C-alpha cells in the first residue's frame, strides 16, 4: 500500500512541479497588489506595456484602478491601494506629509498640451499658455474640462489662476470623466481642452496642438508607496516591489521606448535617478 501511495505522490509531484521548482508561472491570489493610477497611463497604453513585465519579473499580479490622481491619492489615504502612480505634485506632497505614505520616487515625465479645433476661434496658436487661457475665456469659446480633481484638472485650474481668470459661463463645460472621454467631447464640440501629450497622441480625435513647450506644461509622474499606517489591508512589500521595479533599469528602458515605433517619439521620458523638477 505504501508503495502505491508513494507512486501516487510522485505522479502528483511530476504533474504539478516539486516544491524545489518553486511556484507555477503566474501570480497567485496571495501575490496580487492594487495599483491606483491615472487614466493617462491606461488610455495611452503604458500599463499594457509595463504591468505584464512587472508580473513576470516579480511574481506579483497587479489590479490597476485608473482614476484621476486626486481619486488615486484618496484611495491611498484610505488604505485601499498598495501603491500609487500619479501626476499631481502638490497633492502628492500633501499626502506624503500626512505620514501614511512611504517613499515618493520620480518615475517619468511628459508634458501637457493645449488642444483645440484647427480653426482656433480664440486665436491662441503659438501663444504663451497664460495669454492663451485669457483669450479663451475672453472669447467665450468652449473649453472642456475634466472636472474630476485629476492631475490634469489640477494643472488646468492652476493655469487659469496664473492667468488671472476665473472660467465661467456656458462655454466652460466639465465632463467629470477621464482624459480619453474628455478629448472626445472636446472634439465633438470643437472646443479647447488641456491634455497630457501621451493620451493625445494615442487618441488624437481630430484636435490640434495649439500651445506647447511652455514650462508651466511640464507633467511629472511619481510612484508613492502606501504603508500599513493607512490601513491594515495595505501590503508594503508589494508597494516596495513595484516602486523598485518601475524605477529600475528594465522599466525605465521600456518607458523610454514606449510609443517610439508607432508615433515616432516616446510618449514618456524616463526620469528615475534624476533631479526632481517638482522639488
From TrEMBL:
Q: Which PROSITE patterns match?
A: PROKAR_LIPOPROTEIN
UniProt keyword terms in alphabetical order: Signal
Keyword DNA-binding among UniProt keywords: no
Region forming the signal peptide: 1-20
Record InterPro entries: ABC-Tungstate_binding, PBP_domain
Residues in domain PBP?
27-248
In this entry, which stretches build a coiled coil? none
Q: Which domain of life is it from?
A: Bacteria
Q: Tell me which PANTHER family the record gives.
A: EXTRACELLULAR TUNGSTATE BINDING PROTEIN
Protein name per its UniProtKB record? Tungstate transport system substrate-binding protein
